[in-house]
Amino acid sequence: MYLSLAKNRNNLYVLKSTKAEKILISGKTAIGARLRLKNGKTLDVKASKEVILSAGSIATPQILMLSEIGPRDHLEDIGIETLVDLPVRKHLEDHMISYGVPMTYVNKTGPSVKPNCILDEAYKFLIDRSGALSSTGGSDLMSFLNVHDPTSKYPDMQFHHFHIKKGQKFHMEIIINAFHMSDEIAIETRKILAVQDLVYILPTLLNPKSLGEVKLRSADPKRKSENNF
């Protein structure tokens, strides 16, 4: 939806189900990228101006190291030559989030959500950008505060608030998938939602003290990287 306004631009081309595996480098200048397509084949694309690597906190250092940019000792251990010796895998911070304590209550006044409520929500969003689909990540409300120093203007905690109405399965599935709930918790949550409303308040740590790093398991781009804290 974010590219809908620019989808007809001649200089925009979107490849779905495609993974960047490596930056193509000439000398010490990035000139393109190697992509792994949905059918398993690779495609080298060249840049006429610049290459922007924006693959998140895990995949970005992974791609850099697969492109021979990273700590020499680690790259040599897995058989990758070093073009530029840089500590790209260091200083990994993870904002830990907890399910918190879910609360349930019986909504005696409000009607149960209709099975096709997702269609109503989609209509609201497409017409005037309102409804459940207009919220950030499905969260009804987000709050920021400093729990150690209430007078500080810099928060150290974030709280995500979710209200899921009885029978609102599509909203619950978004949360289950987003937070990788275990099968056991997901099953029990669905049972509760069938008869009651649910309220989640999820605390998130904003300034963690622990630092981690990203390591490659091998020189094979198809293998997931290793994250250590």
Question: Which descriptors would you attach to this protein?
Answer:
229 residues; 5 helices; 2 domains; 24% strand; single chain; alpha+beta
Q: What this model shows, in words?
A:
The protein is α+β, with helices and mostly antiparallel strands. Helices cover 22% and strands 24% of the residues. A 4-stranded antiparallel beta sheet has the order 6-9-8-7, with helices on one face. Strands 1-2-3 form a 3-stranded antiparallel beta sheet. The relative contact order is 0.15. The model has no long low-confidence stretch (mean pLDDT 85).
Helix content: 10-25%
Number of domains: 2
Amino- and carboxy-terminal Cα gap: 35 Å
In the predicted model, the low-confidence regions spanning at least 5 consecutive residues are none
Annotation, overall tally of beta strands = 11
Strand order of the largest sheet: 6-9-8-7
Gist?
This protein is of the alpha+beta class. It has helices at residues 56-66, 72-77, 117-128, 169-178, 183-193; strands at 19-26, 29-36, 42-46, 69-70, 84-85, 103-105, 141-145, 157-164, 197-205, 213-215, 226-228. The protein has 2 domains: 4-93 and 210-228, FAD/NAD(P)-binding domain (3-Layer(bba) Sandwich); 103-205, no CATH class.
Task: Please render the helix and strand layout as text.
Elements: E1 19-26, E2 29-36, E3 42-46, H1 56-66, E4 69-70, H2 72-77, E5 84-85, E6 103-105, H3 117-128, E7 141-145, E8 157-164, H4 169-178, H5 183-193, E9 197-205, E10 213-215, E11 226-228
Parallel strand pairs: 4-5
Antiparallel strand pairs: 1-2, 2-3, 6-9, 7-8, 8-9, 10-11
